[in-house]
Amino acid sequence: MAFRKFMGADSAAYEAANYVIVPIPYDSNASWLKGAANAPEAVLRASEEIEHYDFETGANVSDSKFVTLAPASYDSIRETVGKIMKDGKIPLCIGGDHSISIPILNTLPDDVSILHVDAHLDMREEYLGNKNSHACALYSASKSHTVVHVGTRSCCEEEIENVRRFSNVLADYRDTESILHDLGNKVYITFDVDALDPSIMPATGTPEPGGMGWADALRTLEAVCREKNVIGIDFVELKPQDGFHFCDVTVAKLIMKSIIYIEG
Predict the structure, then answer these.
(1) In the sheet that 229-236 helps form, which strands lie side by side, from edge to edge?
(2) Is the dihedral of CA 144, 228, 198, 52 positive or negative?
(3) Domain range spanning residue 231?
(4) What is the pLDDT of residues 48-99, one digit of tens each?
(5) By C-alpha distance, which of 196, 192, 190 is closest to 140?
(6) CATH number of the domain that 92 lies in?
(7) How far, in Å, CA of 213 to CA of 159, rounded?
């Protein structure tokens, strides 16, 4: 069965690829508005229409070696992403609601720190009786990993208590020096697009007023991707909407930029 490719076509076979795009069309653990399951298709479709040349850096993403896998089911995330990492490649996952990150984060080696870019802490032990809710995405991993939260502007008291209990770090996205200081050498990035201001990212299921601008997001990604050993990234919580195709493009560009920044 044919499926879309990032940027319209793979630049390498799996064996030679350094980056593996993993579409994960799943949103059953979203607590409010559904629709994030449509995000992988929308992002891949949008990526076909953007330039491969990056004006900011002068790099061409097609010079990097990437491949796109067939869409993965929720139950196959752990096995799929685990194999990619075992093969020495960097997974770039497109969700889906934030619960797709749980099986990834819970299998990371203990020496990997987590950069969590999100409007919400997602640090509830359970939500509405569901321990796999997208509101719980960082809870389990925080027990054994350093977690740096960036872009946070909404939470409940339970989450603040859990942040303190597990010694998480609440960071200011404008202070990249502190973010780099608090992260270890190996970093996994989980990027919820509602971290972005709704004026540039209205297409998400749980929007919050305020947030990061485009330049803020790029500054944070560039600093971490260039200075740290980034072993994987997921982009979650895009909820595609008619008339807001620029949001699909925004996520596609974030993936493209991440590859270019990691290449250095």
Answers:
(1) 66-68, 19-24, 90-95, 229-236, 186-192, 112-117, 147-150, 169-171
(2) negative
(3) 6-263
(4) 999 999 999 999 999 999 999 999 999 999 999 999 999 999 999 999 999 9
(5) 190
(6) 3.40.800.10
(7) 25
The angle, 0 to 180 degrees and rounded to 10, between the axes of the packed helices 245-263 and 39-47 is 70
Tally of domains within the chain: 1
Residue among 65, 76, 71 at smallest CA distance from 9: 65
Q: Is the pTM of this model over 0.85?
A: yes
Question: Cα–Cα distance between 241 and 262 in angstroms, integer?
Answer: 30
pLDDT digits (tens, 9 = 90+) for 176-214: 999 999 999 999 999 999 999 999 999 999 999 999 999
What contacts 64, CB < 8 A, 6 or more positions away?
11, 18, 19, 259, 260, 263
